[in-house]
Design a protein that fits this description.
Blueprint: H1 2-11, H2 18-25, H3 29-41, E1 45-49, E2 53-58, H4 65-70, E3 81-84, H5 90-100, E4 107-110, E5 131-138, H6 150-167, E6 172-174, E7 178-181, E8 184-195, E9 200-210, H7 227-231, H8 237-258, H9 265-270, E10 278-282, E11 287-294, E12 300-303, E13 308-311, E14 317-320
Parallel strand pairs: 3-4
Antiparallel strand pairs: 1-2, 4-5, 5-9, 6-7, 7-8, 8-9, 10-11, 10-14, 11-12, 12-13
Amino acid sequence: MKTKILAKLRDEKGYVSGQALCNEFGVSRTAIWKAINRLKQEGYEIEAVQNKGYRLVNVPEILSQKELLSIRKTQWLGNEIIYYDEVDSTNNAAKRLAEEGYGHGTIVVSDAQTGGRGRRGRSWSSPAGVGIWMTYILRPEQLLPANASMITLVMGLAVAKGLEEATDTHVSIKWPNDIVMNGKKVCGTLTEMSAQMDYINYLVVGSGINVFNKEFPQELSEKATSLYIETKKEFHRAEIIETIAEKFEEYYDIFMQTEDMSRLKNEYNDMLVNRGGQVRVEGRESFDGNARGINERGELIVDTWEARRLVSSGEVSVRGVYGYV
């Protein structure tokens, strides 16, 4: 009931009478009073005025299932939200939940990860209270496994647009899914799949976002950053999570209409920091070239001195010839 009361106080900008809350939720005034007091104890600043009711004055920077549900505006994404204070990784937790039968659109969030990881097996530092560590469980009914890797680009676009809106600061994408601010990485995405030959059992799409970090170890400081470092502003992580969820739901629905990036590639390319620059592709075969953007398959178009080449994400790393971007 606390979640419902919190959502109601958010929706109503002014006072909400105790009786109105009683009538809406079918409980006693005492139950309402107890729920309000518990919310206050958790840090929510709620004003109570006789003959007027209750008004939400201030919301703390708090990450919880209740907080996330109370601000949810999406249609299907976040129909279930699972929150942990600490977990090995949200992707691992999401895979366990998916195996247990949790449905399409479930969001897994943790305040800390003990085993966070990114693409190509890299570790991702995920201490408590400083970042956003979240994963979506997706069960696309018609998507072919061969097309699933493009979901990573959809997530990258959603995170970039969501962060740009939430921070009012320019954000870019480093293909395929790193999110960049002022030439440094602020977010990474990892997509994993359980599938059969022609059928996807489920996908888990996880993102780690550096939010409140004020510094990084020397070996990371040249290529890693955070929202706080770039903006010198404080943010509510729950609100950022909701903003990104709204963007992802929109882009995912567009993607599923064609099962490719044809309707999203222009918007993606507009945010692509690699576009028009010299890049180095490193994998089984390494080469340099000029990045031209992505095609409808999400492949990076790279012009070399020999020919035009198409690069799929997979186990390939793309970076600037003279640095990270």
